[in-house]
Specification:
Length: 198
């Protein structure tokens, strides 16, 4: 029953957000196009619920010659690949807005563990220990608001496990409210991610 109403809530809120934020989305798209050569959007293969793969959508924040399917923290100089518009979009998390498409399609939920890259088997293995691979992945999550890029993989997976144990409508609402606060504060955003901390 929880998953049924969660899906209805996701769909209603994602459609509403896409409509209300459409001027911002169009402005971001225009800036990206004017700022650097390449597409406005890019897609990446990610793990979804039950280890199923899907394509996640984001605003492009890096140059066209950036190595594909490599987490930012594994690039030797991540800042060298980030565009001017991309730096702002990443800092404000606006690069994630196209994932409303994924929520509407049912690939993702608004709240859940962040979908791992298709080659992040270390993170998936840690999440398996906590049962966090068996719930819908999310646009935001408990780990996101408790450190995000600053967290080592083992801590991130443990927080995802805590979400699995505590998940409810009230907990999801708390996470969404705290996400807005964290985005405003730009907390936990570290270019280079968890490099060197596993």
């Amino acid at each position: 029953m929880y998953l049924f109403f969660k899906r209805l809530t996701d769909l209603g809120l994602a459609l509403s957000a896409a409509f209300l934020l459409s001027p911002l989305i169009l402005a971001a798209a225009a800036w990206i196009k004017l700022d650097s050569p390449g597409t406005v959007l890019f897609k990446q293969r990610r793990f979804g619920r039950g280890r199923r793969h899907f394509d996640i959508w984001k605003f492009r924040t890096m140059r066209r010659d950036t190595p594909a399917d490599i987490p930012t923290h594994l690039l030797s100089e991540p800042g060298a690949f980030i565009t001017r518009s991309g730096a702002f979009l990443r800092r404000t998390s606006l690069d994630e807005l196209p994932q409303l498409i994924n929520v509407i399609k049912g690939d993702m939920s608004l709240v859940g563990p962040r979908p791992a890259l298709h080659n992040q088997h270390d993170l998936m293995a840690e999440r398996e220990r906590w049962g966090a691979n068996d719930v819908p992945v999310g646009l935001t999550g408990w780990a996101q608001i408790n450190g995000r890029d600053e967290l080592p993989i083992v801590v991130k997976a443990a927080l995802d496990g805590e979400y699995v144990r505590r998940r409810s409508f009230l907990f999801d609402l708390k996470i969404m409210a705290l996400t807005g606060l964290r985005v405003f504060q730009a907390r936990g955003v570290v270019e280079g991610g968890t490099r060197g901390r596993g």
